[in-house]
Amino acid sequence: MVSKQETARKAASILCKKNIGFREVNNEERRILAKAFAGKNKVLYGKAYDIIKCSQKIDLANEKEVEANLDKILIYEIKSTSRKNIPKDFSGYFFDLTTAELLVAQSLGDQFKFAFVNIVTKHMLELSINDVYAKAQRVYPKWAIRF
After folding, report:
1. Exposure string for 109-140, b = 16+ CB within 10 A, e = fewer
2. N or C end of the chain, less CB within 10 A?
3. Any idea what the Cα angle at residue 117 is, between residues 121 and 100, rounded to 5°?
4. DSSP assignment, residue 140?
5. What is the spatial distance between Cα 21 and Cα 56, in angstroms, rounded to a whole number?
């Protein structure tokens, strides 16, 4: 059985290989992105996203370049599965949404997307938080506690 982290890493690799602007970011780039969004009064938690998508080449290690091109950067949380029987539209797919992901999605609006990726079929679906709510059949609130 594949762990959630392994599935998410495979999904990130699948997205990056599509050559449509997806890229992973390191800790320093995450810090720069968080600072740039904070400068626009938007919240970006480092653990509330997995990958980004740029509509043009941007040096994410350069704070000024990131700030100047912030509108060309989309933030993505990956929700991945290795189940073969999930349809292309991910109907019937059950996933967790953390409070941090929800807060960042609400703060960033159109600059935050969810990338649903099936690592077996390679199907991918991009949805905004509003699209997720529109598609949702049920929402089950929960708290997860870690000691």
Report:
1. eebbbbbbbbbeeebbbebbbeebeeeeeeee
2. C
3. 165
4. -
5. 7
Strands 112-118 and 124-127: antiparallel
Residue ranges with strand state E in 35-83: 51-54, 73-81
Tokens of residue 95, six digits: 């996933």
Over the stretch 115-143, which tens digit does the pLDDT of each residue have? 999 999 999 999 999 999 999 888 888 87
Report the alpha-carbon distance of residue 129 to residue 48 in Å, rounded.
13
Whether this prediction's pTM lies above 0.85 is answered by: yes
Backbone angles phi, psi at 16, to 5 degrees: -65, -35
Whose tokens are 């929700």? That residue is: 79
Tens of pLDDT, residue by residue over 4-36, are 778 889 999 999 999 999 999 999 999 999 999
What is the rounded CA–CA span in Å between residue 29 and residue 67? 12
